[in-house]
Amino acid sequence: MAKDVRNPEFWNKFLMRPEVEAVMRKKLKYESYAEAAQRTKLDKAERKQRRYDIMNELMQCATNVKHLISPMFRYKITQQYLWKVLCEARQEGMLFCDKLRTPQVYHRLQSIKAEITAGPYGVAGWQAEEEVEEDLMDKFVVEADCIPGGIDGEAPDRKQVLDKREIQGVLDFGQQIKSEGNEAFVNENWEGALTRYCQGDEMLKNFAAEPHLSKENKELKTMHRACLNNKANAALKMDSWQTALRAADAALKLKTDDEKALFRKAQALEGLGKTDEALEVLAEIEQIAQDMDE
């Protein structure tokens, strides 16, 4: 008797046969892999386009911003955050470079950088993007490396000038970071304190109040100097003599007779084995004290 292939019962029994079930499982598995591969291909194409968009926008940014971002751009978490910021900037009608320099965004980028550069434990879970476009990346890194300032307290090539309301936000944020650093220092968490003070330094040196806001500019300078002095102190606790020396020198650029900065500079020089130079700095402190007594 011929089998009636039009009969649903026939197909029900046919599909229940072990060899047919095995074939169907393989087919479904293959289709699933094919769909996943297609999605991955589309995702890669989309991520690639996003990277191009971000990097082309970054080319227009100030060099100190490039200096901050270039070492960590390969990480997916950085690219995801930058894409979010770029989308927000477009929605708000802002320039991407201006959006990056707002206190909250700049602080978040500092936090990401601190996590990535904290060593193997800090990098855990941070996946690097394998296919970053080398032609753009090379140009980006070269430009970022050719920066006359922008590290360890040095003034960037261009500060963002803020109005009274905006600069107050920077001061409040700077005070918060400084307080968190002080708390870590009191708890003898030197590394945590140093990270916070570095973040404060990186943020505060990038902003200035409008020229007529002399009080706010003075507060900003005072807070930045305090962050640098604290940064030097935390670095000394970790025997990071060079970091301490650079931070102390940066503080002295803001106030040449800063006794705290001079003392920490002397300690750093002594740690580096430059005893004669350390003694010269201590002599400066003594001279300042004598001048104040007169």
Give your account of this protein's structure.
- There is one protein chain.
- The protein is an all-alpha fold and 294 residues long.
- Among the domains are: 106 residues, no CATH class; 97 residues, Tetratricopeptide repeat domain (Serine Threonine Protein Phosphatase 5, Tetratricopeptide repeat, Alpha Horseshoe), CATH 1.25.40.
- 73% of the residues lie in helices and 2% in strands.
- It contains 14 helices and two strands; from the N terminus they run ααααααααβααβαααα.
- Strands 1-2 form a two-stranded parallel sheet.
- Helix 9 packs antiparallel against helix 10, helix 12 packs antiparallel against helix 13 and helix 13 runs antiparallel to helix 14.
- It is elongated.
- The relative contact order is 0.07.
- GO terms for molecular function: protein folding chaperone.
- InterPro entries: FKBP4/5/8-like, TPR-like_helical_dom_sf, TPR_rpt.
Key structural traits:
mainly alpha; 294 residues; 2% strand; Serine Threonine Protein Phosphatase 5, Tetratricopeptide repeat; 2 strands; FKBP4/5/8-like; two-stranded parallel sheet
Question: Any chance you could write out the topology, listing elements then pairs?
Answer:
Layout: H1 8-15, H2 18-58, H3 63-69, H4 76-92, H5 96-100, H6 103-116, H7 120-123, H8 134-145, E1 160-162, H9 164-186, H10 190-204, E2 207-209, H11 214-237, H12 241-254, H13 259-271, H14 275-293
Parallel strand pairs: 1-2
GO cellular component, one term: endomembrane system
GO molecular function: protein folding chaperone
InterPro entries: FKBP4/5/8-like, TPR-like_helical_dom_sf, TPR_rpt
